[in-house]
Amino acid sequence: MARKRGQEINGWLVLDKPLGPTSTSMVNKVRWAFDARKAGHGGTLDPLASGVLPIAFGRATSTIPYIMDATKRYRFTLCFGESRTTDDREGDVLARSSHRPTDEMIRSILPALCGGVVMQVPPVFSALRVGGQRAYDLARRGRPPELPPRPARIDSITLIDRPDQDHAVFEVQSGKGVYMRSLARDIALACGTVGHISVLRRTKCGPFDLSHAYSIEQIALDKSAETRDKADALPAPLLDVATALADIPALAVTTAGGRALIYGQTVSVSHHVVSASGRLEDHPLWRVLIGEHVIGLCRLEEGRLKAVRMLENHLFFGEKDVDYS
């Protein structure tokens, strides 16, 4: 018997990912629980990391790139005294140091590691490709690659707790592609010692935070196939597709302007913009609304608005085919 394709489900679920499983395995579990046709996630968490893992269903998968680029917040514990091959507690010990920095020393070195774009060497055990192969595959075969520094946007690092001399707890706000394991390693080195991450938790990812999150136990993974076939009996409520765009400034347009953008036409700013949360020239991307409904994204180009990605099509207006020329 051919396998069912699953339900056409659209929206976001925020999972509080537990320690241990991979992000992909969590997406597969949740996709099965929802009997969803299509699903993906908005940013990988390592197996030894927990916290906010946004999972997109159906049309929400088209907004994943905007979550990947969004600002994120983490809390991690740095363990001083041992560097590890993986830069977390899973790896083998590479070096040891008896030096333990004071709180004052830690705070003094943090400004040099944040405040904008810095250069960061990724962990050897990462998914980056080197000569067509994953860096972690090379490292596991005993041939760890030398990875060049990469630009990384780190907005802020705050020392928030010092449980004992061997540990320090930090909160970090950062952009896309920042490795917390590398940051922990670099903080220790800047303090004249070595260290690794022992605990890592993501608390925010774009507009999604822990207040939106469900644990895997809260999602009824043992629902019967009969129950899961019902679209109105989902294991947990979904957030709207457009929730992923909430951090992008809003631009309200007229119904006629929105229709034109959906049909791929550019529109006049003076005739169709109702309101904007700022100057159009100040932002590369705008979240377009008709009334309170988000229809997609646009940008300003030569004085006119041009669609970048539309979440709605002509059916939003109940039209089969319209020539809006």
Automatic annotation (TrEMBL):
A Pfam family of this chain: TruB_C_2
Active site: 46 (nucleophile)
SUPFAM superfamilies to which the protein is assigned, alphabetical: Pseudouridine synthase (SSF55120)
Residue ranges annotated for the Pseudouridine synthase II N-terminal domain, each copy included: 31-180
EC number: 5.4.99.25
Protein name: tRNA pseudouridine synthase B
Gene designation: truB
NCBIfam families, A to Z: TruB (TIGR00431)
Coiled-coil residue spans: none
Substrates-to-products reaction catalysed: uridine(55) in tRNA = pseudouridine(55) in tRNA
Keywords: Isomerase, tRNA processing
Species of provenance: Saccharibacter floricola DSM 15669
